[in-house]
Amino acid sequence: MLSKKEIQEQRVRGYFIEATKELLKSEGLKSVSVRNIADKAGYSFATLYNYFKDAKDLVFLCVKDFREECSAYTASKSHSAVAGSRRLKAIISAYMEYFIQYPGVFDLFFNEKLSEIDRQGNTGGLVTSLLEELCEAEWQHCINKKLFSAREVAQKRAALLYGTTGLLTLYLNRCYPGSYEAFTKQAGHFIDQQLKQSS
Questions:
Q1: Which of 181, 136, 183 is nearest to 156 (CA)?
Q2: What's the CA gap between 58 and 29, in Å, rounded?
Q3: Do the beta carbons of residue 75 and residue 90 sit within 8 Å?
Q4: Residue 110 CB: number of other CB atoms within 10 A?
Q5: pLDDT of residue 118
Q6: Which of 180, 165, 174 lies closest to 190, judged by CA?
Q7: What's the per-residue H, E or C state across the chain?
Q8: CB 38 within 8 A of CB 44
């Protein structure tokens, strides 16, 4: 059982993590500083140093939390879809929706230099493996049902990672295409093309 002091420490750490997540979601990495985090959490910046080495430690923890959030979001949006290609499309579409809702998280994952916040050297892998991990069971289902070969799946995985990242980058950073409706139509067409079986 945790002591009162340990409970208090966990609570304060949680306030700092939530404050960092809010800043990242709304304003992006450029807004994250020890002072801004502390202000948002309602504590002095000196207090933050009692719990974390610096703001980079908090950002790294947020990357992990955002992965979990995205995973939960995609699961909630895709669980009722039929296994295989339909569920893959639902997962990939929900993955893209998550980043549309939180462009600051997309910027953190795909536009910022993660090497600047990553002391352990594995943040890039956490980010780039997310879509693959979300789709893993469905890809395996497709292989088992002989819808796609393992080689085809490897190619489709790569194409979907590059394609979804490119589509999101163009839409979020360059407003291309010009409307959300046009974006979802283009994204849906791209996903359908990738999930099409060879003749």
A1: 136
A2: 11
A3: no
A4: 18
A5: 66
A6: 165
A7: CCCHHHHHHHHHHHHHHHHHHHHHHHHCHHHCCHHHHHHHHCCCHHHHHHHCCCHHHHHHHHHHHHHHHHHHHHHHHHCCCCCCHHHHHHHHHHHHHHHHHCHHHHHHHHHCCHHHCCCCCCHHHHHHCHHHHHHHHHHHHHHHCCCCCHHHHHHHHHHHHHHHHHHHHHHHHHCCCCCHHHHHHHHHHHHHHHHCCCC
A8: yes
Structure pTM? 0.91
Q: How many residues does the chain have?
A: 199
- Owner of token pair 């959300």: 180
Q: Look-up: residue for tokens 């997310």?
A: 130
Taking the C-alpha atoms of residue 178 and residue 156, their distance in angstroms, rounded to an integer, is: 27
Cα 171 to Cα 85, 94, 164, 165, distances in angstroms? 25, 16, 11, 10
8 Å CB contact between 27 and 40: no
Sole residue written with tokens 């923890």:
61
Cβ neighbour number for residue 12 with a 10 Å cutoff: 17
How does pLDDT run across 124-137, given as a tens digit for each residue?
888 899 999 999 99
> What radius of gyration, in Å, describes the C-alpha atoms of the chain?
19
The model's pLDDT over 88-109, given as tens digits with 9 standing for 90+, comes to 999 999 999 999 999 999 999 9
